[in-house]
Amino acid sequence: IPWEDLRYIFGEIMYGGHITDDWDRRLCRNYLQTYLNATMFEGDLNLAPDFPLPPPLDYKAYHAYIDDKLPSESPKLYGLHPNAEIDFLSQTSEKLFRILIEISPRDTNSINHGQNKTLSRDEKIRTVLEEFQNHIPEDFNIVELRARLDERNQY
After folding, report:
1. Which of 9, 54, 128, 149 has an alpha carbon 20 to 30 Å from 24's alpha carbon atom?
2. Cα separations (Å) of 146 from 71, 120, 141?
């Protein structure tokens, strides 16, 4: 296999021709040098830690491989520390609570709500949360969706 020629075609002609930054072109060349060589066919190639390249299969077998063999999505697959997900979820929840505080009334005593009904701050927040909850769509029933598909093909 003419690896050097293939790297040139991919890195300089097909994709490299669209790269305008010298550092990006250099990065592309390094990726091609690392991944496009004879070692691709020697032993097991891992796309990421604990994420092996699947064997040659037909279309249905690839779907079965993806469903059965691949690990669940985790920060480790992206080369991140396992705590990255914890940090992301913490930041997301902090942002949610910050938004809730921003939309809550500034007057901490009470709020006049329509027909002379007074809502406390906690009741107002609960009302807003219930409104949000009413707009959240139901979970997908994967078994039902798969049953509705007549034939799973590549298109």
Report:
1. 54
2. 21, 46, 9
Confidence (pLDDT) at 96: 92
Burial of 75: CB neighbours in 10 Å, binned 0-12, 13-18, 19+: middle
Q: Give the Cα separation of 31 and 121 in Å (integer).
A: 55
Single-letter residue type at 65: Y
60 pLDDT more than 70: yes
Res 39: pLDDT: 78
- The pLDDT tens digits of the residues spanning 74-89 come to 787 777 888 888 888 9
Q: What is the DSSP string of the chain?
A: --HHHHHHIIIIIISGGG--SHHHHHHHHHHHHHHSSGGGGSSPPEEETTEEPPPS--HHHHHHHHHHTSPPP-GGGGT--THHHHHHHHHHHHHHHHHHHHHS-S-SS-EEETTTEEE-HHHHHHHHHHHHHHHSPPPP-HHHHHHH-S-----
Q: CA 8 to CA 74: how far, in whole Å?
A: 34
Give domain limits for the chain.
1-43, 46-103, 107-155
